[in-house]
């Protein structure tokens, strides 16, 4: 995910990277690009990410990592992403408590449905 400013417009873009079942390649799809109307603070970014994940039926436990630059608002949003304060990985914090708790197949359950939701939204 990344935020950008173009003129007087401010945007937040979120991509999903996943593997398609039966294929040996990664797929990257843009989930959403939203106009943040100038709001790039930590709590706003976090709330928008959660809303976009919900829009596509993606549960937090299916998110294995979040790739960001080192902007303070993005780092803060990722560090505070989980409601129950579980640790997730950022460029400054390499703890993996959250991902270690995931069973091997847990993160990929429902990926077909997520892909269908993303394809429908893209049309």
Could you characterize the architecture of this molecule?
- This is Zinc finger BED domain-containing protein 1.
- InterPro entries: RNaseH-like_sf.
- There is one protein chain.
- The chain is α+β, with helices and mostly antiparallel strands and 123 residues long.
- The protein has one domain.
- Helices cover 31% and strands 21% of the residues.
- The protein is built from 4 helices and 3 strands, in the order βββαααα.
- It has a 3-stranded antiparallel β-sheet with strand order 1-2-3.
- α1 crosses α2.
- The chain is globular, with a radius of gyration of 15 Å.
- About 20% of the residues have low confidence.
Short description:
InterPro entries: RNaseH-like_sf (IPR012337). The protein has 123 residues and is of the alpha+beta class.
What characteristics describe this protein?
single chain; RNaseH-like_sf; globular; 123 residues; Zinc finger BED domain-containing protein 1; alpha+beta
Question: Which structural class is indicated by helix and strand composition?
Answer: alpha+beta
Order of helices and strands: EEEHHHH
Total count of strands? 3
- Low-pLDDT parts are 84-107
Distance from first to last alpha carbon: 21 Å
Mean pLDDT: 75
The biggest beta sheet is recorded as: 3 strands, antiparallel
General shape: globular
How helix-rich are the residues, as a percent range?
A: 25-40%
Radius of gyration: 15 Å
Q: What's the structural domain tally?
A: 1
Can you list the strand order of the major beta sheet? 1-2-3
Q: Roughly what fraction of the amino acids lie in strands?
A: 15-25%
Number of helices: 4
